[in-house]
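To make the argument concrete, we let one protein speak, a sequence paired with a row of structure tokens, as a model reads it:
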Amino acid sequence: MDDYIDMEKVTMVDWTPVAAILPKENVDSIYVKLEGVHSKMSVYKKGETPDRLHYNTHRRIQPITAVADEHWSITTRTHFNTGDNSDRYNGATHGFDPKYKSMGGIFVGHGPAFKQGLNGPDVTSIHLYEMMCKVLGLQPAKNDGVLDSTRVFLSN
């Protein structure tokens, strides 16, 4: 980040892979310096992130959000070169864009409600709530999940 902006002019509320940036003064001047500056980092103003990320309107979202591509980190040269950070940028992390397969989880269903031996398709975790309510005989609260997306896992 320090290659592109004066770090004294921002507060970094959070770092990699999703950096939350609070400019101390002019949001637009910081945004212009970051937007498009690196091919492995997308930068958005609050309210302009892709809808699929559901990261636009909450009061805790900072004026600028930078999102690293998979396998990349957002940092400063000072931080990267200070102390023993050798393992910090080589291991696993979380928080990358959910479009990456590496950000998927593992679902294991066991018991009479689930098909045995099934190696099912990928499923977005937002749909698991609907399925679990079905299995437990509960009425789901309003949500964005769809039961049809997980029926393949159910025995009946």
